[in-house]
Automatic annotation (TrEMBL):
Organism name: Gossypium mustelinum (Cotton)
This protein's record includes keyword Membrane: yes
UniProt membrane topology term: Multi-pass membrane protein
Membrane-spanning ranges: 94-113, 184-203, 209-229, 327-348, 368-389, 410-431, 460-484, 496-521, 541-564
InterPro entries, per the entry: MFS_trans_sf (IPR036259), POT_fam (IPR000109)
Name this protein carries in UniProt: Major facilitator superfamily (MFS) profile domain-containing protein
Compartments in which it is found: Membrane
GO cellular component, one term: membrane
Alphabetized Pfam families for the sequence: PTR2
Length: 590
């Protein structure tokens, strides 16, 4: 039975999938663009909104925003599980988009309706104190946040996989379309971030919070509209039951049969029933993690149904399921390396702002003082310029010489980004050393916290910010595409959640690293590396430390890449034939 809704009659026993590919992209990319404009436009300035409109203390507001962002990322795992197990990506995306839109509407109402937020500080009392939000106002606000968490939990893990579902993974044009889609997905994300950090933030801060939040809500409405307009164009892959259950079944079956001897020719003798309705690619046998093979050893006690499946999957699993679990296990070391890589990205984005605060931010001789937080836009500009060049010019050129899909392998692509991250950290350290030297010897002023402002122009921060953007374009896009292609097809929503869970863990790891460095360095002879006044610290030492960690991570990544075996597609259970007669697993060295 075909596991898609978007199909038409065919001459064979099984209906054929009608992949619309590029024809479906206006709806998919349009939905993606408006959704990103809505979500980033709402979330990027939340801290300012909570402290200025809701009169929350900075610590309380920071904790609430951190909990909100962390919950959004962790909710992706739940959303992915529900999508892959029960509802499918189309239904999950539709429900989550509506939930996100309603959450943004509630948030907009907290700004537009005076009774839904505290009075302004200069009107609340004679002594200048600010009234905080009432329990009712907080309940209304948190209700909006809750709906947005539900939306993020469904949208983030599913939108990439859903877009890639529109291309035929068994044809050259389909494979090229999937790779191009991942690049353009990240392009829309950076474009949305640029717009939200400039136009939308300006409207929120200098015009009206009501209008500033209404604009993202309207963008989210357009996202929903674009998504549902394209309904008839989409390939909608139906869920096939809990993939997590299959993982547990294989492990338990292997443990139960742990005392059995491994067969001499496991690829022949092991039980390997593949349901006709399976959407997963048929996988070749792999010698890695051979212990799991015991789950597929057929014993006299095992019973088989009339359709060839095991009566008790908790005692007997097919070799196909075993190989799918092996795919998951192989991905974990690469995922761990991606988390370490993201630490450099987080540190650069954080401390580049602090560097800008204590540098000369005047734009030439115009007298215009560039906001420190706005320098993050150079990271996005670098990505926005690079992706079209890479996707349309460099990849086709590389393909002529390497004959590989995408020009280079995904692991090679990620390694390039990791090298760029190391270079970025070194450049950041050199620039910081110069910035601090000029701040101590030739300051141009003192800020409100009595810290010297360096005469070094903030334009010197542009190279490191641009490089980290290029690094993200290689490694983060590579990781997203890697998860999608290496996970079993029925777990691709969970694959999408891996990116966000990794980012959440990297944020926690970054905070832990900063705390450790701060506590250790403040007792050293050099003094605290990361004080509030950077001129009294050694931020350049910290950058070198992160560079060292990234060098070790690169070495670890290369070892994992040389050990890694790609999942190769042959034919799938739904009758779509692949390019090769036999499925192969090949090792990839960087």
């Amino acid at each position: 039975m075909e596991k898609t809704e978007n199909c038409s009659a065919a001459t064979t026993d099984e209906p054929q999938i009608h992949y619309r590919g590029i024809k479906a992209m206006p709806y998919v990319i349009g939905n993606e663009t408006f959704e990103k404009l809505g979500t980033t436009g709402t979330s990027n300035n939340l801290l300012v909104y909570l402290t200025t409109i809701f009169n929350m203390k900075s610590i309380s507001a920071t904790n609430l925003v951190n909990v909100f962002n962390g919950t959004c990322n962790l909710a992706t795992l739940i959303g992915a599980f529900l999508s892959d197990t029960y509802f499918g990506r189309y239904t999950t995306l539709g429900f989550a988009s509506i939930s996100s839109f309603l959450g943004m509407v509630l948030l907009t109402l907290t700004a537009a309706v005076s009774k839904l937020h505290p009075p302004a500080c200069n009107k609340s009392s004679e002594n200048g104190t600010c009234d905080g939000p009432t329990p009712w106002q907080m309940t209304f606000l948190l209700s909006g946040f809750g709906l947005m968490v539900i939306g993020a939990g469904g949208i983030r893990p599913c939108n990439l996989a859903f877009g890639a579902d529109q291309f035929n993974p068994e044809t050259k044009s389909g494979k090229r379309g999937i790779t191009s889609f991942f690049n353009w997905y990240y392009f829309t994300f950076t474009f949305a971030m640029m717009v939200s950090l400039t136009i939308i933030v300006y409207v929120q801060s200098d015009v009206s919070w009501a209008w500033g939040l209404a604009i993202p809500a309207f963008m989210m409405f357009l996202s929903c509209l674009m998504f549902f307009i394209g309904t008839k164009m989409y390939v909608k892959v139906k869920p096939q039951g809990s993939p997590i259950t299959s993982v547990i079944q294989v492990i338990i079956a292997a443990v139960r049969k742990r005392k059995l001897k491994q067969p001499d020719k496991p690829w022949i003798s092991l039980f390997n029933h593949i349901p006709k309705a399976s959407i997963n690619s048929k996988l070749a046998y792999s010698d890695q993690f051979r212990f799991l093979n015991k789950a597929a050893i057929l014993t006299p006690e095992d019973k088989i149904n009339s359709d060839g499946s095991a009566v008790n999957p908790w005692k007997l699993s097919s070799l196909q399921k075993v190989e799918e679990i092996k795919c998951l296990i192989r991905v974990v070391p690469i995922w761990a390396s991606g988390i370490i890589y993201s630490v450099a990205m987080v540190q650069q984005q954080t401390y580049a702002v602090f560097q800008a605060i204590q540098s000369d931010r005047y734009l030439g001789h115009t007298g215009f003082n560039i906001p420190a937080a706005s320098f993050g836009i150079f990271t996005m500009i670098g990505v926005t310029i690079w992706i079209p060049i890479y996707d349309r010019l460099i990849v086709p050129w590389l393909q002529k010489y390497t004959k590989k899909e995408g020009g280079i392998t995904l692991l090679q692509k990620m390694s390039i980004g990791m090298v760029l991250a190391i270079i970025t950290m070194v450049i950041s350290a050199i620039v910081e050393d110069r910035r601090r030297a000029l701040a101590l010897s030739n300051p141009i002023g003192i800020d409100s916290k009595k810290r010297s402002i360096s005469s070094l122009s903030t334009m010197w921060l542009i190279p490191q910010l641009t490089l980290i953007g290029l690094s993200e374009a290689f490694t983060l896009i590579g990781l997203i595409e890697f998860y999608y292609k290496q996970f079993p097809e029925n777990m691709r929503s969970i694959a999408g959640s891996f990116t966000f869970i990794g980012l959440a863990l990297s944020s926690y790891l970054s905070s832990f690293l900063i705390s450790v460095v701060h506590k250790i360095s403040e007792r050293s002879q050099t003094g605290d590396w990361l004080p509030e006044d950077l001129n009294k610290g050694k931020l350049d030492y910290f950058y070198y430390l992160v560079a060292g960690l990234e060098v070790m991570n690169l070495g670890y990544f290369i070892m994992c890449a040389n050990w890694y075996k790609y999942k190769e597609s042959g034919s799938t259970g739904n009758g779509v034939e692949g390019d090769d007669d036999m499925v192969k697993l090949q090792s990839d060295g960087v």
